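Need the bound structure for nicotinamide-adenine-dinucleotide, inputs here:
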Amino acid sequence: MDRNRQLATRQPFDVVSNPEFLREGAAVADFMRPDRVVVGATSARARTVMEQLYAPLTSPERPLFFMDPCSAELAKYTANTMLAMRISFMNEVAALCERVGADVEEVRRAVGADKRIGSSFLSAGVGYGGSCFPKDVKALVATAHAHGLTFPLAEAVEQVNERQKHWLVDRARAYFAANGGLAGKRLALWGLAFKPSTDDLREAPALTVIDGLIAEGAHVIAYDPVAIPAAQKLLGDRGGKLTYATSAYEALAGADALLLVTEWNEFRQPDWARVWTLLKSRVIFDGRNLFDPDQLRTLGFFYAGVGRAVPAVQEVAFRQANN
Ligand SMILES: NC(=O)c1ccc[n+]([C@@H]2O[C@H](COP(=O)([O-])OP(=O)(O)OC[C@H]3O[C@@H](n4cnc5c(N)ncnc54)[C@H](O)[C@@H]3O)[C@@H](O)[C@H]2O)c1
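Answer from helper R.:
Posting the output first, comments after.
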């Protein structure tokens, strides 16, 4: 045994579990103002050290919870799976809204105002991504399996999310079905990162959308404020079927439709007159319900959002008038 190892093994130490609840792009703010701090520790000595360490950041409103390490780890998986479950649940509601002629944004407003439910993580869209939700949902399911249980609710969260990533391709395919399908179509895609304020493409819905569109013979022109270098590295040009634009407007030139994937602030209030001039056909598929359907329809665009029903006659009429 060398001298360093001998020294190390003679030092008393404790192991604690201290899961973090930090969001990408907001990690410093989340760290400084935590909802709570969770520490799994078995010794009084470790608790004292952790209490001192977190003293500047905790208060009665920002409590420090001590528990056993197993509960601390499970608290982390449970929190993330519950948030992911809210997203998948609303995506299921959105699918129903489209069938029955409702608007999921109205449903969300009404449901989120219930104090018992709250309004966070209820937005319908093209699915969650990133490193944490997908990984932690899987971890909860795997942990249940490893202990002889099933966890059908968490499994459904993941299945619904995977289905939801196909919403844009399915919606665009349905729209263009009577017009030669997606083959040969030029489609502008706004947003590559799995969420705004990051260039992270892990499990990003944009990856499913791009490959789905290209598989059907479309050409994709993608724009993202920060994630293009990461996308170029990960995806390349997909055999010439994927082009990267240097601005949101450049992506639109001659396109048969705009597909919104990530709700970056710079996409919130585009110059619609400019969008109108650049698009070849004025068709918008909004994967994050970022835009105002009434405004766009009044301006003459075809608009479809997630869980926002479009009357079939309106869709057929628009397509016929614009063929
Ligand atoms: N980011 C990390 O490196 C990291 C590391 C470890 C743990 N975590 C944990 O994972 C959690 C998730 O972190 P994150 O960085 O992925 O960010 P996040 O919580 O901001 O977003 C996660 C997903 O939820 C979606 N989402 C956000 N708000 C929504 C809403 N109102 N309605 C519907 N969908 C919404 C986002 O699009 C994204 O796909 C954190 O809260 C933290 O507990 C994160």
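Comments: The chain has three domains: 15-67, 71-163, 165-321. Residues 165-321 form a domain with the Rossmann fold fold (CATH 3.40.50.720).
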